Structures are given as C-alpha cells and as structure tokens.
Amino acid sequence: MAKRAEIVLDHEEREVLERWVRRPKSSQALAFRCRIVLAAAEGRSSTQIAAELGCNLSTVGRWRGRFAQRRLDGLHDEPRPGKPRSISDAEVERVIVKTLEEQPVDATHWSTRSMAAATGMSQSAISRIWRAFGLKPHRTETFKLSPDPQFVDKVRDIVGLYLNPPEAAVVLCIDEKSQIQALDRSAPVLPLMPGVPERRTHDYVRHGTTNLYAALDVAS
C-alpha cells in the first residue's frame, strides 16, 4: 500500500485555501480540492476524508499527492498542450474578483475597455476571461417579490392545475395587453429591393387604442 502524503500547511497556504473555499465564485472543483487538503492537514486519513466528502479514495489520494509535490499550484488543472499561457491564474482570478466584487469609479458596469485599463491587460484578454467564465457585466435582468402572504400557496395551486389538470378539462392561460396604440404610416411602405432596405415614413397617424386578449392552451 502506498504511503499517504503528509500535509503540513504554513499560515499563508492555509489562508489561501480557506479563502478559495469561502469565496462563492470559486469553481466547485477547486473548492472541493481545497477541502481535501484542509482535512488532510488536520490529520485525517484519506478514508475518513473520502467518507466525509462523499468521493472516491483515489480522488483524495490524487489531490493529497499533488499538493504535497506542488503545493497550491498542484490544485489547478494540468496545463493543456499548445501555446504557453501568457496570463497567470492569479491574473485571471484578479479580473474575476474585480468584475464580481468591485465597480468602476465613473460607470455602473465594467466594460472590456475600463477593465483592461484597471488591470493592465488587453481588451481581448478581458473578453476571453469573461467569456470563459460566462460573465456579462453589461447585461441585467429584473425580478419582483410579491408581498402577498399567500403567494406560495397560490403558485402551487396554479402550477398544480397545469401539471395535473382535471380529467377531460381544458386549461387556458388568459392574458391581456391593453392600451395598444393603433398606428398607421402616413404613406405606403416602400418594399425591399436589391441593395435597398424596406423604407417607411418617419411620421404616423393615430387610430386610437385597442386591447389584445389571448387564451393559450399551455397544459396540452
């Protein structure tokens, strides 16, 4: 049986490992490897660690050995064949942390230009890092919280109706869009032609408003 790698951490290594575990934006794989090393440093056997973390014994042995040989660098994935990287893991981490936890002084969101200026990297490098980690600082989405104390019960009733409608029943989802302006152009639209896009007048004529109602059969 191969002798297990003994793990002894200095203060700086322990701080880095604990920070990687706590940071919500760390990759799950890296955080998991850090937990293995921290548990090993507490004197636990590989069998105990595997049972506590729910992984294979060979997985624990692999990352214990990698850390014992290469320390913190050993917890990252092996480099792939090809051109050597010009940006280190620390630089990538700095961009990710800055994107998620900081805000530019003169704007509400980071752009590739402002992040490149703040980090000293090129815009293309920032773009590649953001794309690799699925970061899109320019995009925002909205949400709404309901103050209705019975909101959850109502949602369950409606969703349950869609998932399990009464026998031989038709379930319709009805929605409306009111106060739609009925507009018409002041001149006929000129059609698309080779080399010329469709053209329409800038001004329009109002014909009042209308309401649109829709009943959608979404359950069948």
Largest β-sheet summary: 2 strands, antiparallel
What helical percentage do the residues reach? Answer: 40-55%
The average pLDDT is: 83
From the N-terminal CA to the C-terminal CA, the straight-line distance is: 60 Å
Shape: extended
Read across the widest sheet, the strand sequence of neighbours is 1-2
Count of spatially separate domains: 3
Helix count, DSSP H or I runs of 4 or more residues: 8
SSE pattern, N- to C-terminal:
HHHHHHHHEE
The secondary structure category is alpha+beta
Strand content: 5-15%
Radius of gyration: 29 Å
**How many E-type strands?**
2
Low-confidence stretches: none
List the helices and strands and how they pair.
Blueprint: H1 11-22, H2 28-41, H3 46-53, H4 57-70, H5 89-101, H6 112-119, H7 123-132, H8 151-163, E1 173-185, E2 204-216
Antiparallel strand pairs: 1-2
Note the main attributes of this structure.
3 domains; 220 residues; 42% helix; 2 strands; alpha+beta
Description of the structure:
The protein is of the alpha+beta class. It has three domains: 11-75; 89-133; 150-188 and 199-219, no CATH class. The protein is 42% helix and 12% strand. It is built from eight helices and two strands. It has helices at 11-22, 28-41, 46-53, 57-70, 89-101, 112-119, 123-132, 151-163; strands at 173-185, 204-216. The chain has a two-stranded antiparallel ribbon with strand order 1-2. The longest helix has 14 residues, at 28-41. It is extended, with a radius of gyration of 29 Å.
